[in-house]
Amino acid sequence: MTLSIIAVIAVTGAALGIGTYGVKLARTTSDLFVASRAVSPWWNAAAISGEYLSAASFLGVSGLMLKFGASALWLPVGFTAGYLTLLLFVAAPLRRFGSYTIPDFAEARLPAPYMRLLAAGIVLLISGCYLVPQLKGAGVTLRAITDAPYWVGVALVSLIVALNVSLGGMRGVTYVQAFQYWVKVFAIAFPALLLLIHLGGLPARAALFGEEIPRADRAMVIELDAPRPVTFPDTGETRVVSRVELARGDAFPVAEGIDAQTGDEWSRPVAESGRGSPILIYSLLLATFLGTMGLPHILVRFYTNPDGSAARRTTVRVLGLLGVFYLFPAVYGLLGRAFTPELYVTGDTDSVVLRVPAAAWPGPMGDILAAIVAAGAFAAFMSTASGLLVSIAGTVSHDVVPGKARKRRTRFRIVSVVGMLPPALLALATPNVDISVLVGWAFALAASTFCPLLLLGVWWPRLTASGAAAGMLAGATVATGMIAAGLIGDVSQETAAGAILTQPAAVSVPIAFAAMIVISLRRPPQNVSAVMAALHVPEPVSP
Asked: What is the pLDDT along the chain (543 residues), one digit of tens a residue?
């Protein structure tokens, strides 16, 4: 525990130090919003990857794999593949167009007084939804390594991120996020490789790939933080308990919302129903594949490149950097099922990455590896939260309340502090909501709003402001309404209705595209040739 605290303090101190260095460079409005468009492809690729690899990637993928099985590995497939659509369709045109924010692009491409505010509202909604799970992950991590109350981690990361962003802006955050990418890769890869070497491969293969469910290898008592219902697989009985006593060979009970699966069931990437059902996987891939294109804190990064060609080179590098990282979350999911099955009882599966090293390698070496992982987890929360807060502060100070450059810089710094409060309060109010639910909501919103706006806005000259507005509103309403209905109605994910309510992109994305196209066809736009040329004419233009 002491080593983990030291590692977290070291990473946090390094981030603050680099951010402080960025303060010296953040002298202009362009520095704060787009780092003066002077970030090289390698620096930008590392910063984008650091910003993108959030709590959902560092903790959530492994936690979902432990909880539901191999079907959770479709998440990193979609997360990474989303950059392919960015590379092919958006990166270079968006940079050529030259804006500070996505609302800037929306208003310039589709001149209408309401487009900027509508786009700004969606930026704030997506960024806020995505910021909450980062803060939740911070609370979970600090509680796991120090036994501190959940709220301490939320408050600590909120304060550090607000300080870094308010002082350094985009230029300072770029250096911090690039550093944090390499911290995260080392923190997830090095312990995973050492554990596999130490163990000589994967243990408990019958529970991983065979006909067994996880069973206790010794007598143990598992204390729960509060009385809750758990199901005992051997008898099928469900009881409300505050502690579970197991003898050697007893099957581990499972908390509410978790199914007791054999290794064969757990290791299947596609199942007939539930989280692995084809309809849910299809919708999940659609949300992540297209949602990446619509994440505001990722899109703004492409404005920091010097030109469109550099934006494309940056995206290619991001694909490689993300591919390296996503090799390792599955290792923790597999080892967690073998070494920390008590998490099935407590339901705290999001902490599996933090708990596996010490459980799989008891002693000083396990403690060292656990400390490295904890440092990487904190880097994940801070880097993604920083990018999201830059997006929120930039949108409010540049799009919602525009003004002179000097006042805009002041507003950026004020909003960087004030804008962190609503997500922090929401994170404190929802400690038991799955990280994956909130992240899925953010991706579904992005895929159903900004993705069709960008694809059609960049490649279809006939898109109109009224069509774009109708499509974004329809997509956001359907996605949000379906997810809310699933949460309020407590619909089982074992049914087709439950699966689609959990991840509604398969419904909301086609509706958004259809609304934009149908309404835009009613009245063609005028004088769009100059705008389309700004998007597609390569730079520099030959005389």
From this structure: 578 888 888 887 877 777 666 555 545 444 444 444 456 677 788 888 888 888 778 888 999 899 989 988 998 998 888 888 877 888 778 777 766 678 888 888 998 889 989 999 998 888 888 888 888 888 888 887 778 888 888 998 888 888 777 765 556 677 778 888 899 999 999 999 999 999 998 888 889 999 999 999 899 999 988 898 999 998 889 999 999 999 999 999 999 888 899 999 999 988 777 677 888 888 888 999 899 888 887 777 666 666 667 777 888 888 899 999 999 999 999 999 999 999 999 988 888 999 999 999 999 999 999 999 988 888 888 878 877 887 888 788 777 776 655 666 777 778 888 888 988 998 888 777 766 667 778 889 999 999 999 999 999 999 999 999 999 999 999 998 988 887 776 666 666 677 788 789 999 999 999 999 999 999 888 878 888 888 887 765 434
The sheet with strand 220-232 has its strands ordered as: 237-246, 220-232, 254-255
For residue 226, what are its two tokens? Answer: 């509060």
Cβ-contact 6, 370 below 8 angstroms: no
In the 8-state DSSP scheme, what is residue 73? Answer: G
Query: Could you give the CA distance from residue 376 to residue 180 in angstroms, rounded to a whole number?
Result: 8
Please answer whether residues 277 and 27 qualify as being in contact, where contact means their C-beta atoms are separated by less than 8 angstroms: no
- What is the 3 state secondary structure string of 246-297? ECCCCECCEECCCCCCCHHHHCCCCCCCHHHCHHHHHHHHHHHHHHHHHCHH
Asked whether the beta carbons of 214 and 67 are under 8 A apart, the reply is: no
pTM of the model: 0.86
Task: Quickly tell me which residue has 């059902």 as its tokens.
Answer: 277
What do you get for the CA distance between the two ends of the chain, in Å? 65
Dump the DSSP string for 344-388.
Answer: HHH--GGGHHHHHHHHHSTTHHHHHHHHHHHHHHHHHHHHHHHHH
Q: How far is CA 445 from the centre of its chain?
A: 13
Q: How many CB atoms lie within 10 A of CB 163?
A: 17
Beta strands in 131-235 (DSSP E): 220-232
Question: Over the range 419-435, which residues count as b (16 or more CB within 10 Å of their CB) and which as e?
Answer: bbeebbebbbeeeeebb
Tokens of 66: 């432990």
Distance CA 266, CA 66 (A): 9
φ/ψ of 254, rounded to 5, equals: -125, 140
* Domain annotation for the chain: domains and CATH numbers: 2-206+272-536 (1.20.1730.10), 215-251 (no CATH)
Question: Under a CB-based contact definition with an 8 Å cutoff, are residues 188 and 357 in contact?
Answer: no
What values do phi and psi take at 420, rounded to 5?
A: -80, -20
Between vectors from CA 340 to CA 335 and to CA 346, what angle results, nearest 5°?
140
DSSP 210: S
Q: Which residues pair with 251 in a beta bridge?
A: 215
Burial of 199 (0-12, 13-18, 19+ CB in 10 A): middle
